[in-house]
Specification:
single chain, 33 residues, mainly alpha, 2 helices, 85% helix, elongated
Length: 33
Amino acid sequence: MDAKRANRVVEIKMLVMAVPQKVRMQIIRHGVG
């Protein structure tokens, strides 16, 4: 397991948890669209 990749995943998880669900849905929708 790459340590850097693991750290990146943790950072992304922390960011996702910090973002409100409503904003997260908008980001996902924009990303997909």
